[in-house]
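Sequence decides. Consider this:

===
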Amino acid sequence: MTMRSALYYPHTEIRSGKLMKTALMLWDRIHVIVPFDGYVPNYQSKEAKRSFELIGNCHCPTEDEKKHTHELVEDFATRGLPESFSYFSVQSPEEIYEVYPQKLLPKTWTVLEQAGLAGKPLANADYPMANAAGLSLMSLLADCCAGDTLVRVTDRSAAYASLAGLMTESSPSPLNAMDTRESLLAETLKIADADSIPLSKWIKFREREVGAADGHQVRALRHRFVEHLEAYAGRIVGAKTGAARKEMELQFREDSRDDLRALREALKLEAGQVLSTKEIWFSALAGIAAIGSLAFSSVMPMPDVVTSTGGVASIGGLLASRYKYVSARRKVLRDHPLSYLYEAGGGLFRL
């Protein structure tokens, strides 16, 4: 089953505008780990603040999650960790990672202090750690908070890749679903010419999903798009060889291009089977004029109007044509994973 929401780590605010945009594109909600109930993330820009209002959720670790994290920390702290994980290896303030004490149990901090991975609380009550240890700790906590229902996402991929190298003695880090998903998303955005859509437009698109009459349909399009990405990401991560992985990536690009072409052709065909956009608008304007001329009559029959092709169409007929087109269009969109990006970019033939 495709997971529809994500958990962000390691910070209490999403620091990357790119990740915020990705979250608006993909997830129902994105949860951030906060130290206590009532914590309010501090977003400086209006767009970031509005984005979090739409899809963000503050998650304070539960007692069970803290207990689970404690068990993992006990194992982690007793490993033969590299020297860079020790708090006493820190040479400058820039190398310190501060952690809210409330995110963990008191006994967990005792374990970390005794292992030399954390120092005594600072003046602000935060526990200081070396960057490597602090990032690792937040990853363990994220595992416990995400469970089997949330996708884990971060904007510190480079830092975590470096950690993986330290922990595995420079052996290459295994391919993971998060990096693969990001790569496939970037590829799809290029194919759909949607990579230049600004954050402000994604905010409006999510506001449409939340508040518009067709919001549930937009949400369904997003879910199908995410399923498309996740299915391919799973296959690529599970590939046995590099050659197999490259072949699946090639298939993904071809399938995405073909889906977009088929979508555009299907929409043009459906529009042509009803009326061209020009005819519909011409007829609609003529109908409005006809209605206006009868506005002061005691009896107002449904008028006929002349279309741009010389035929006669009633307002009722125009409304029926419009309904037929909208229904057919929605069916076409449901059949194509990339229709979500097409709609986000302001797809053609919308009535």
In short: The chain has a mean pLDDT of 85. The radius of gyration is 27 Å. Residues 1-173 form one domain.
